[in-house]
TrEMBL record:
Gene Ontology molecular function: transcription corepressor activity
The keyword Oxidoreductase is assigned to this record: no
Protein name per the record: Uncharacterized protein
WD repeat spans: 240-281, 322-353
Biological process according to GO: negative regulation of canonical Wnt signaling pathway
PROSITE patterns, per database record: WD_REPEATS_1, WD_REPEATS_2, WD_REPEATS_REGION
Region Disordered, residue ranges: 1-21
One Pfam family of this chain: WD40
Any single Gene Ontology cellular-component annotation: nucleus
Membrane-crossing segments per the record: none
UniProt keywords, alphabetically: Repeat, WD repeat
Superkingdom to which the source organism belongs: Eukaryota
Amino acid sequence: MLGYDSHPNVRTPGLGSNGLGGIPGGKPAYSFHMNGEGQLQPVPFPTDALIGPGIPRHARQINTLNHGEVVCAVTISNPTKYVYTGGKGCVKVWDISQPGSKVPVSQLDCLQRDNYIRSVKLLPDGRTLIVGGEASNLSIWDLVSPTPRIKAELTSNAPACYALAISPDTKEVALRVSHSSLMSSDRMKPRSGDWVVTINFLYATSITSLSIGSSVCFSCCSDGNIAVWDLHNQTLVRQFQGHTDGASCIDISADGTKLWTGGLDSTVRSWDLREGRQLQQHDFSSQIFSLGYCPTGEWLAVGMENSNVEVLHAAKSDKYQLHLHESCVLSLRFAACGKWFVSTGKDNLLNAWRTPYGASIFQVGHFSPEVVRSKESSSVLSCDISADDKYIVTGSGDKKATVYEVIY
């Protein structure tokens, strides 16, 4: 089975009606492998590309959450019960565990009324929500109170936050921060409980190695910097500098040691969190709007302004280029199993892809009849997949979020 599109109305930009190099049957290729010399070849998919344990068959719409404003950010609780949708000025909380029509169970007023929420992230224990958007401050919300309440704000020098990442649960993230910044106050003293901060002074290098357990937030700033926050002490502990335009998207490796960021400067960069330095830089011909790092390692998927999805090997020159979106790719998310990922775009589409070579598992709006009825009617700006890989949530420009059940 080759990487051909079974839906000839979807054309690969710039490749003509027959895709690359004349495709049998007139159906354009949509998945290409790029070798070390930069040559593109259609991908011969393995026979088990679309079958086997953990590979979905399609997705079925089960809920519509009428937020009332454009939904720029979504996230799902673990276990699957609540969906958080971010729009203008506020985050709404929905209980999707009960059948019937949905109304929000809570509303978190985070920003000024006309400022959009751009990212919402739950801490691994599900008790705290971090919210960022078109403002210089991030807000930290306590979700275990009788009603959610804001318990702190983090203020940066940048006017906006485009994306957030949280250090993985039960992992220790080691950061290197300037000696002087720590000595300026006692804010980094070790505390008892779950949020433990340990400091070892390395006098020879004037650098401090800071180990933080499950308490680090990374924010992509509109000035291109990546801010690193100690959530327990509510302080900025360092910034990664490198992007020359806004940092738009971010993901962290499952072991908590490496960070990946994409930017409006058309670069993707990886950062060593233990050494506090940039490891790699990948240059593209298009702005980067979304990315995700495979939970099982090795592969990074990147969504671009030019409608392409590219899947890069973290250590080799192997790369796949996927052409099914018809406009810019606005969000991207890997399933927890790592076997597949989804991307959404300005073209109103939700695509599910096989890792890493990009066989199209399903496409909301273009595949089976039950999926066609759930076609998004506006740009799909955000997405998330539940921790058990059973549900997908999208946020769209038509002021709603949509919940899909993943069918295996």
